[in-house]
Design goal:
Order of helices and strands: HHHHHH
Radius of gyration: 27 Å
Number of helices: 6
Number of strands: 0
CATH architecture of the largest domain: Orthogonal Bundle
CATH class of the largest domain: Mainly Alpha
Number of domains: 2
Amino acid sequence: MRVTRGLVLALTIPAFFVLTAASTLADSTPSPAASGGTAASGAAGLPGDPSRGEQVYASGGCTACHGASLEGGVGATLNPIDKLPGVKNPLDPNFLIDIITNGRQPQAGDPRSTKMPAKGGNDKLTDQDIKDLAAYIIVQNRSGSPPLSPGELAKRTILWVSIGIIAMVFITYLLSTYNMRWIARRAAARRR
């Protein structure tokens, strides 16, 4: 009986640690979607100040169309940013600045069929405000938690289901071992 317990422990514990390590590595590896598809990280390459852009976003009327958390609504979803037909990188600072400054007419294949007015309909936005807004959108897409891709979601689901199954098998083994000892003691007590 001790050999079986040792074998179960020898297989279960390393498997648990390997699966946990794999999960940790998967969580720490940035996906291309989370980094906005660019190699730059942090504040490098940002057109403005993202913290100031957050203030402009909240007070400049952007939330009415794009939502308080950039989740979209009447206007486009900004985190994760909607993919637009014919636009290679929707997080390109120049592209964002141009769209915010000049607006955008809906085009075939757009996820939303609403017009983006110039400066979001707020003529009081300065050029620096627009740059700060673009920086805020870029940073939110880099550091935000966009939904997982179907493949990544499947990997994580398989990982945690596997960990759960291993834990259940181990607990079942421990309970059955205890139960067998209890049955043996009861049988020995009846024989007396």
